[in-house]
Amino acid sequence: MAYCPTCGEDNLEDARFCTACGKALPERARTDAADTASAGEGRHRPRWRQGAALAASSRLTIVASLFAGLVIGFGLAELFAAGGKSGPAASQTLALNVSPTPALSGRLMLTPSSGTFLAGDSFSVELVVSAREPFNAAQAAVSLSPNLAVQTIAEPPSTHGPCDFTNYSHRPTPADPSFAGSYASGFASLSCTVYVLEIRALRSGTATITLSGESILASSDGRELFGTANGGIYTIAGTAPSDNATPSSGSNLHLATPTAAMMAGRLPKRPRARQRWNSTPLFDDAEWRTALTWGATPAAEAAVLLQRRVTAGAAQA
Prior knowledge:
By secondary structure, this protein is α+β, with helices and mostly antiparallel strands. It has 4 domains: about 1-45, no CATH class; about 50-100; about 110-235, Immunoglobulin-like (Sandwich); about 260-315, no CATH class. About 30% of the residues lie in helices and about 30% in strands.
């Protein structure tokens, strides 16, 4: 297209005169028009359109600058409202505003949590509750492996800081040492010992005490504080002695079971005279009657007396 420098009208490329104003079109305008058409740039915009585009661009720049200024201004205002002064205090206030929820700090643990014991022996384990902020209630399910048995559950000594829960929704027993207790209103603790388990090792192997279903509640608002639990793993060695085993007395003397005649008061015959040791009778009549009077002297005492006399006779030899 050929641009008319007089009126600004676009004309055909080969036009010599402007179709709008009739003025002759210069040769350069026709050449520029041909170059523009070949480059695919379309029509030339009039000067007044170029000015409008520049004005719109300027307005956008001004609006963007005002928006950025407002954002910066609000940020500075928030900063001054948070502290109003610089230093560690202001930093601490900002940190509290953006910090995430604090980690759960409550803990339930057994102490000792490990050890080696002999089968048949007994040992004590304490259950301790602790947290970084006051709590007023706690609970846990406590289970033991088959090679352990709870003999007694005792209150911890005062030096270990007993929990002394006043309310129990589940009171621990030797058959079920699980617990769920709480303090009365207005009372709380940071660390305390729930109880002391007296445990008997039944047989060798690895023994465990497991904690589950744990909960520790904050006294301020009832939030859950429980975070970790530590049970116990113990090594049991050896074999437990049989409960009906009879300890050896160290001698070959065996007591006979009293007969019906003995229980009726009939005495066994006195030993013959040949039962002497260096011409000294082992028993005289009174001593023999006293030692073997069933009912007046227990069988065990009679056996001890008999052993004493035999030992005395051997010493005289």
